[in-house]
């Protein structure tokens, strides 16, 4: 039973890897950016766990800025992905402009809240 | 060749005409919303109403005078003496900032309106904006026709008028506009999937958080809707774009507002949004994996994940539940808990239970406040299901939750009003659509012309099935016609075969006379609604409650301006630093109009302080004097309605003083004041009641008015008629005896009477004999 599950896991892993290799490079770059943002958020949480949460507003703004950029990058990826039928008549430049605008607002708020 | 072009030109011309017409209709709706709220200004004067608006007015005055930095850092030492209040951190700044900005813009354009005028007219202006926002929201859900109807309904709905009349300068005036606008932007994002609207949505949510504590409704309703969409299988990437950025940006923006601060991430009211945030990420990830894997591998992945992930999930949930359960209220604030459990406030927090706005509404108040909409709402709900889209499921959820909450607190009928208007607008618009289409379809046949607008004929999709019935114009099925008039016109029979050849789909069309009659009836319904709304606005909701009027038998108007008379006396005849004690209802008005320091006011944030004042009012004169003297009080203000029959006076509120005081100071026991379970002030009253400060201050010299001391509100003669005040002296009573102001008598210089050794503070050796009373007694 365990062997079949480990074999299944192996097969799953391989199929995931091959499927993911097929995605276009631009989307992979966005995925890397998302991964980096989440990683930064995790580092901040670990740091807070070690050092303590004072001042809390700085911690909150730091973590939420990382999470926010990750979320916005995922939204950009959704809108730019050519396989997405719902967004096929949305020009990618418009998607990127929206992404930049939302990031601007997010970081303005972060700067204000950082304290 | 020319024909399609002509047809195209005709349709674009029709669309252009429709747009222009919509624009003018919206303009008229805005003017209507503004003007129907002006009854109070016409009947009384341009004055700020009630109690809470006076605080907002005072804060706006401070903002316009001192600028925004001083406003953010303002520590108010003229209320809650000696504690003070941090205004910057405890007030929702949206309303005052809005009015302040309006005033500043107008003054810089050289339109010299006073702050009071801007404050009085802020609410009608924003109600016009709210009806435009309702148009936009309903247009996203169902279409422009429904939007116009809903906007017209919202402009007049009495429930919204009651809180946004000219002069009612309270948070809800701008908050309802912010609520509807936020919902519109959310639906727009959901429908278009555009990140631009998602940003605007977060900013509108920020404006809502600034304006009203009811923003928790938004931050719980939207996650509920997202969860509903996920569970019913309507997950799409547009849903992710609509929700995920909103949560992150919205939480940050909510934390920016000082009064919310870290509550945005720490109180249970926001946990629903985080939970659904995690859930939507999981769902999005699952959909993504499903998209890139083959179905067989996906099944394998699912099995693996379930076995491993379930254990992790349980651990995380256990930690979360332990965290939340460790706080006694499970992290919810008192007001929110009383929404979920309506009996919570009466058991634990008597102050919340005592506010009249927090009581559950009675059944007639539904008909009074939303009138005709009450039975158009179910029709609207059905219309939303045909067809069901993301937007219409949201509106259905909105109405269901707002109906529940309005049943808990009468104040929240206000949140029900926009939902009811949207639903009724949808229902009315669908009904009109069916009837006019029936008429339009049958009119050519009636007039004998052969041009049938095929565009209308093929729209057989959506009909509100709450109609009396549908008729199919085919020959095979002979259905029974539940129309009002059961006879067919000859011409229709003749035209039927020829029409049948032209139309391929089945039509849902009603008979002509039924349609015309039904349209007339619907118009009549609307007319009744309008009449009721105007009546409610003019008679029921326009009273400023700081000025009272009554009609004398010969038809003249008698004005009771006692409150302002008393506050003006206070501001002219007392020192600037004198402290005034009264029940907390009048705190805001006293600080705003009389400009004197008060002990407690309507903010009711400190229960013990209010209980102290309540205890003082319930105690005998000497004990009350001690309490007030310890608070540096100079004047005591009492509202008394016995001479003119004003029912909201302090004697009627006395039971709350006893209850709140007794909740903190156990020596005040409520049964001491009750005779047979009732509060009485006549000869059957208990001696504690007859000796308490509230009784004495209300009825001092009252017997001089008519010789018998007949109290018009309680409808009896008072118990103790002739008595003197030993520790207080009366300094002012208004014209109709409605407000009475007393001054604390200073202690006497010399202490006469029995030779008692005084307890001296500095030396303990010289104090020898102690009498029974330890305290220094300056009166004997």
TrEMBL record, chain A:
Localization in the cell: Endoplasmic reticulum membrane
Pathway(s) annotated for this protein in UniProt: Protein modification; protein glycosylation
Origin: domain of life: Eukaryota
Regions that span the bilayer: 32-50, 56-76, 96-114
CC terms in the record's Gene Ontology section: oligosaccharyltransferase complex
Keyword Lipid metabolism applies: no
Keywords, ordered alphabetically: Apoptosis, Endoplasmic reticulum, Membrane, Transmembrane, Transmembrane helix
Endoplasmic reticulum among keywords: yes
Mode of membrane association: Multi-pass membrane protein
Family from the record: Belongs to the DAD/OST2 family.
Stated role: Subunit of the oligosaccharyl transferase (OST) complex that catalyzes the initial transfer of a defined glycan (Glc(3)Man(9)GlcNAc(2) in eukaryotes) from the lipid carrier dolichol-pyrophosphate to an asparagine residue within an Asn-X-Ser/Thr consensus motif in nascent polypeptide chains, the first step in protein N-glycosylation. N-glycosylation occurs cotranslationally and the complex associates with the Sec61 complex at the channel-forming translocon complex that mediates protein translocation across the endoplasmic reticulum (ER). All subunits are required for a maximal enzyme activity.
Protein name as annotated: Dolichyl-diphosphooligosaccharide--protein glycosyltransferase subunit DAD1
TrEMBL record, chain B:
Needed cofactors: Mg(2+); Mn(2+)
Matches recorded under Pfam families: STT3, STT3-PglB_core
Record field: catalytic activity: a di-trans,poly-cis-dolichyl diphosphooligosaccharide + L-asparaginyl-[protein] = N(4)-(oligosaccharide-(1->4)-N-acetyl-beta-D-glucosaminyl-(1->4)-N-acetyl-beta-D-glucosaminyl)-L-asparaginyl-[protein] + a di-trans,poly-cis-dolichyl diphosphate + H(+)
Gene3D superfamilies: 3.40.50.12610
Regions that span the bilayer: 12-36, 86-106, 118-137, 143-161, 173-198, 204-228, 240-265, 271-289, 301-325, 366-386, 393-410, 416-435, 507-531
Region spans: Disordered: 461-493, 750-780
UniProt keyword Secreted present: no
Top-level enzyme category: transferase
Pathway(s) served: Protein modification; protein glycosylation
The entry's keywords: Glycosyltransferase, Magnesium, Manganese, Membrane, Metal-binding, Transferase, Transmembrane, Transmembrane helix
Subcellular location: Endomembrane system
Domain of life: Eukaryota
InterPro entries documented for this protein: Oligo_trans_STT3, STT3-PglB_core, STT3_N
Residues covered by the Oligosaccharyl transferase STT3 N-terminal domain: 20-423
Membrane disposition: Multi-pass membrane protein
Boundaries of every STT3/PglB/AglB core domain copy: 577-636
Keyword match Lipid metabolism: no
EC identifiers of the protein: 2.4.99.18
Protein family: Belongs to the STT3 family.
Protein name: dolichyl-diphosphooligosaccharide--protein glycotransferase
UniProt source species: Hevea brasiliensis (Para rubber tree)
């Amino acid at each position: 039973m365990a062997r079949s599950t480990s074999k299944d896991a192996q097969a799953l892993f391989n199929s995931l890897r091959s499927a993911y290799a097929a995605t276009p490079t631009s989307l992979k770059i966005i995925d890397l950016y998302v991964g980096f943002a989440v990683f930064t958020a995790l580092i901040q949480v670990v740091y807070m766990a070690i050092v303590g949460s004072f001042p809390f507003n700085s911690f909150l703004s730091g973590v939420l800025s990382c999470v926010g950029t990750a979320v916005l990058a995922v939204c950009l990826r959704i809108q730019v992905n050519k396989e997405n039928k719902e967004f096929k008549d949305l020009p990618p430049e418009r998607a990127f402009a929206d992404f930049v605008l939302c990031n601007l607002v997010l970081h303005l708020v972060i700067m204000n809240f950082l304290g | 060749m020319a024909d399609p072009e002509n047809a195209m030109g005709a349709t674009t011309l029709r669309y252009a005409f429709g747009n222009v017409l919509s624009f003018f209709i919206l303009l008229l709706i805005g003017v209507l919303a503004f003007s129907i709220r002006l009854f109070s200004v016409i009947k009384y004067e341009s004055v700020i109403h009630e109690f809470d608006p006076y605080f907002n007015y005072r804060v706006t005055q401070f903002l316009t005078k001192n600028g925004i930095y001083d406003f953010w850092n303002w520590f108010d030492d003229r209320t809650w003496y000696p504690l003070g209040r941090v205004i910057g951190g405890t007030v929702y700044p949206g309303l005052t900032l809005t009015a302040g900005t309006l005033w500043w813009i107008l003054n810089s354009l050289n339109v010299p309106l006073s702050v009071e005028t801007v404050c009085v007219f802020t609410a009608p202006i924003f109600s016009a904006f709210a009806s435009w926002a309702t148009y936009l929201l309903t247009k996203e859900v169902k279409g422009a026709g429904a939007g116009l109807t809903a906007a017209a309904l919202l402009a007049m709905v009495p429930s919204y008028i009651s809180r946004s009349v000219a002069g009612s300068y309270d948070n809800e005036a701008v908050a309802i506009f912010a609520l509807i606008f936020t919902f519109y932007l959310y639906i727009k994002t959901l429908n278009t999937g555009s990140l631009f609207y998602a940003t605007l949505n977060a900013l509108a949510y920020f404006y809502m958080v600034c304006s009203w504590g009811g923003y928790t409704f938004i931050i719980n309703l939207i996650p509920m809707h997202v969860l509903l969409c996920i569970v019913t299988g309507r997950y799409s990437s547009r849903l992710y774009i609509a929700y995920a950025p909103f949560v992150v940006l919205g939480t940050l923006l909510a934390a920016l507002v000082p009064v919310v601060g870290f509550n945005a991430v720490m109180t249970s009211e926001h946990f629903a949004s985080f939970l659904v945030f995690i859930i939507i990420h999981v769902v999005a990830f699952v959909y993504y994996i499903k998209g890139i894997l083959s179905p067989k591998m996906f099944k394998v992945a699912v099995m693996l994940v379930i076995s491993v992930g379930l254990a992790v999930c349980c651990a995380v949930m256990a930690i979360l539940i332990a965290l939340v359960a460790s706080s006694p209220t499970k992290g919810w604030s008192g007001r929110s808990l009383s929404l979920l459990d309506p009996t919570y406030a009466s058991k634990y927090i008597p102050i919340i239970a005592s506010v009249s706005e927090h009581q559950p509404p009675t059944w007639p108040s539904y008909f009074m406040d939303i009138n005709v909409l009450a039975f158009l709402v179910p029709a609207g709900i059905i219309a939303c299901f045909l067809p069901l889209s993301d937007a219409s499921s949201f509106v259905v959820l909105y109405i269901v939750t707002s109906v529940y909450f309005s049943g808990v607190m009468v104040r929240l009928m206000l949140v029900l009003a926009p939902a009811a208007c949207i639903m009724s607008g949808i229902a009315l618009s669908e009904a009109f659509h069916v009837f006019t289409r029936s008429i339009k379809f049958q009119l050519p046949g009636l007039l004998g012309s052969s041009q049938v607008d095929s565009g209308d004929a093929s729209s057989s999709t959506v009909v509100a099935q709450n109609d009396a019935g549908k008729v199919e114009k085919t020959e095979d099925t002979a259905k029974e016609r539940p129309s009002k008039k059961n006879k067919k016109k000859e011409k229709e029979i003749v035209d039927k075969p020829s029409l049948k050849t032209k139309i391929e789909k089945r039509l849902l069309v009603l008979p002509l006379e039924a349609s015309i009659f039904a349209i007339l009836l619907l118009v009549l319904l609307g007319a009744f609604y309008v009449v009721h709304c105007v009546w409610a606005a003019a008679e029921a909701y326009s009273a400023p409650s700081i000025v009272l009027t009554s009609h004398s038998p010969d038809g003249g108007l008698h004005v009771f301006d006692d409150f302002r008379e008393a506050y003006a006396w206070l501001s002219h005849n007392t020192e600037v630093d004198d402290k005034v004690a009264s029940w907390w209802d009048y705190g805001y008005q006293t600080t705003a109009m009389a400009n004197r320091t008060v002990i407690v006011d309507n903010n009711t944030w400190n229960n013990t302080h209010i209980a102290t004042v309540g205890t003082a009012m319930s105690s005998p004169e000497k004990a009350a004097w001690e309490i007030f003297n310890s608070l540096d009080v100079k004047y005591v203000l009492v509202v008394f309605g016995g001479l003119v029959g004003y029912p909201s006076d302090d004697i009627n509120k006395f039971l709350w003083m006893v209850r709140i005081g007794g909740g903190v100071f156990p020596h005040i026991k409520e049964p001491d004041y009750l005779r047979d379970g009732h509060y009485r002030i006549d000869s059957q009253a208990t001696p504690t009641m007859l000796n308490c400060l509230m009784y004495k201050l209300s009825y001092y010299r009252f017997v001089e008015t008519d010789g018998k001391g007949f109290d018009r509100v309680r409808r009896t003669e008072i118990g103790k008629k002739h008595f003197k005040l030993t520790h207080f002296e009366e300094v002012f009573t208004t014209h109709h005896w409605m407000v009475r102001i007393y001054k604390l008598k200073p202690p006497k210089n010399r202490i006469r009477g029995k030779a008692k050794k005084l307890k001296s503070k500095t030396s303990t050796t010289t104090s020898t004999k102690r009498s029974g009373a330890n305290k220094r007694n300056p009166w004997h």
